[in-house]
Design brief:
Elements lengths: L11 H8 L6 E5 L3 H7 L4 H21 L4 E8 L7 H24 L2 E6 L7 H13 L5 E9 L1 H14 L6 H7 L10 E4 L18 E4 L9 H12 L9
Parallel strand pairs: 1-2, 1-5, 2-4, 3-4, 5-6
Helix pairs in contact: 1-8, 2-3, 3-4, 4-5, 6-7
The structure holds 3-methylbut-3-enyl trihydrogen diphosphate (2 copies) and magnesium ion (MG).
The site of one 3-methylbut-3-enyl trihydrogen diphosphate has 12 residues, from strand 2.
Length: 244
């Protein structure tokens, strides 16, 4: 068992204790830098995505272990459809492999899976599999939301369209309740790796009062200790929500 060397040293134990306050329920990750990780090693981008997938599994598991109730990951954006076909294919293949694994993983880690985004372009079989996985894990305690074919603007447009079609009044509550994330609390913390400091169309509505944490670490290099650093930084922030 690792022991933290000082009271305020980021560590697993310290993260668990901070998170037990209930103030950090939901972390969302913009998993960026897979391509650069591969390029640095002279490897094809798809290898970066493979190592990125391994990091994703480790980080999701760690977040659950330290008491994070909801994790959302940005795995594929609406804009990512514009990447070369073989790269898109390699990402879809990794997602399929992960879904295969999920039956085991989800029960071991108590993961309640939810896919957010427009899955239709992934094909009917994929949509069905995703729905099955959501249904099969609906009773688990730790929310894992995977953003696929996801764009914040697209999500808001789809929500508003649903309201308009039903002739319902457009209010903040009604929009929130018709987003793909309905029922999930807004992210308290959004982590973006690989040095970019932008949202890239992620959770635009839900991030209104999220804290942001940026690290230069490339996603495949992310380790549990990097999460401890982000948690420490989060608990040093003052969230005012516009008040004094
Ligand atoms: C993030 O890594 C994964 C996806 C967007 C699917 P990138 O593939 O964007 O990696 P970089 O930004 O090119 O390094
Ligand atoms: C955001 O990363 C999307 C995902 C992490 C899935 P991108 O690499 O696509 O974003 P930009 O192009 O740098 O803004
Ligand atoms: Mg990128």
């Amino acid at each position: 068992m690792s022991q933290s060397s000082g009271k305020d040293t980021p560590s697993r134990e310290r993260s668990i204790s901070l998170i037990s306050s209930g103030r950090l329920r939901h972390i969302a990750f913009i998993m960026d830098g897979n391509g650069r990780w591969a390029a640095k090693r002279g490897l094809p981008r798809k290898v970066g995505h493979r190592y990125g997938a391994a990091a994703f599994k480790e980080i999701v598991r760690y977040c659950g272990d330290i008491g994070i109730k909801y994790v959302t990951v940005y795995a594929f954006s609406t804009e990512n459809w514009g990447r070369p076909g073989d790269e898109v294919e390699s990402i879809i293949k990794l997602l399929g492999d992960y879904m295969d694994e999920c039956e085991k993983t989800a029960s071991r880690d108590s993961l309640r899976m939810r896919f957010i985004g427009d899955l239709s372009a992934f094909g009917e079989a994929f949509v069905e599999r995703a729905a099955k996985l959501e249904a099969a894990t609906a009773h688990y305690s730790h929310g894992l939301n995977i953003a696929l074919g996801y764009g914040g603007r697209d999500e808001i447009v789809r929500a508003c369209r649903k309201l308009a079609e039903r002739g319902e009044e457009i209010t903040e509550e009604a929009i929130g309740a018709n987003l793909d994330t309905a029922g999930i609390p807004d992210p308290d913390l959004i982590v973006r790796t690989a040095g970019e400091k932008r949202l890239s169309n992620f959770l635009m509505w839900q991030s209104a009062y999220s804290e942001f944490y940026f690290t230069d670490t490339l996603w495949p290099d992310m380790k549990p200790h990097d999460i401890d650093l982000a948690v420490e930084e989060f608990f040093g922030r003052k969230r005012r929500y516009g008040k004094v």
